[in-house]
Every structure is written in structure tokens, then in C-alpha cells.
Amino acid sequence: MSAFTVIAGVTRTLAGLLNGATGVTVEFDKSPADNISDAQSLIHLYLYRIEHNPFFRTVDWVRPTETTQQASPIGLNLFYLITPYGNGQEQIQMTLGEVVKVLHDNGVVSPSAFDPVLADTTEELRVVPHSLSLDEMTGFWRSFENRSYRLSVTYEVSVALIDSDVTRTVAPVAERHVVIEQLR
Fold it and tell me: What confidence tens digit (pLDDT) does each residue in 38-48 have?
């Protein structure tokens, strides 16, 4: 069962993956509009958009038992802005290079890296680059009040599943009747 806590669980999974592979602190509790210091090496992970995954919109009801059906789960794609901070452009660029390498090497996140909230997740978590044009990226940064553009990358993580609580009772097939007739 995947609860509504799945979104936060995916964010913590990415933060743990990046921190474990780079050794750099990962901040995900602040908005890019908040004051983040350049004094130390830091990776800022920001969930900026969520979309419904189109492939999970047409999934049929799931049958967990013989007498119940459960509405299909909600599939979500999560979009993250990843921004390195550090003391100078060289450190920032090196940290960004590490982030890109880690996410390339972990395009499918291993279940062993999952946050405990994702323990019962049945789908893989796929991490793919999500390119924004320079105009889109600068417009994005302009939306954060009093913050200037920073070197960043964006990634899409799919699919995060949230199970539905809607169920219905169904009767199992007790007996089948087949009638065969000749057509005229």
C-alpha cells in the first residue's frame, strides 16, 4: 500500500541517494526563495511540479481479495530543481557534475535506497533529466522573489503511486452457464 506520504518519501529517497553518493549535505525543506548560504557545499533539492502519470489514468480496478475491488492507484510524475551551492563557481560546478553522475548511474533507483515510506511500492522509481530552455529556467528563477539565476538542473521522477481508498464489494462467480446454439 502506498499512502499519501509517498511524495515526501520520494524526496527523502533522492536526498539520501545524493547525500550517500556525494557526501554533500542535501537540503529539501526550503524554497529557492529562502536565503541559502554559499558558505558550505550544499545540494538544494526542490519539488516544483507534480503531474498525473497518463499511463495510470486508465488502469482497471485492482482485486486484492476475492470479494473486493479497489480503485486503481494515482500515478504521479515529480519534477525537481536541483541547485548546488558552494564557495565559488568551481566548487558549484564540481558538485553539479557529481549530481548529474549519481542520477545518471541511478536512472532506476534501487529499492534498497528507498525511504521506509516506499517499502511497499510496486513500481520502479525512474529518474530522467528534464531539460528546460534557458528562457524557461531564467523565468523559473525570476519567480523566486529577490533571487537571481543559479546554475541548476531539473529531473523528472516517475512513477510515485498513491493507492486509492475507494473499494467495492463484488460477488465471486459461483457457477458458469454456457449456452451454445446454432445461428440461423
Answer: 768 899 999 99
Q: Is 98 helix (H, G, I), strand (E, B) or coil?
A: helix
Exposed/middle/buried for residue 11 (C-beta within 10 Å: 0-12, 13-18, 19+): buried
Q: In angstroms, how far is the first alpha carbon of the chain from the final one?
A: 52
The pLDDT tens digits for 26-38 are 999 988 878 777 7
pTM, full prediction: 0.83
3-state secondary structure of 63: strand
Asked if 12 and 117 count as a contact pair (C-beta separation under 8 A), the reply is yes
How high is the pLDDT of residue 2? 64
Please report how many Cα atoms fall inside a 13 Å half-sphere around the Cα of residue 176, on the Cβ side: 2
Asked if 144 contacts 48 with a C-beta cutoff of 8 angstroms, the reply is no
For residue 75, what are the β-bridge partners? 161
What is the rounded distance in angstroms from the CA atom of residue 34 to the CA atom of residue 68? 47
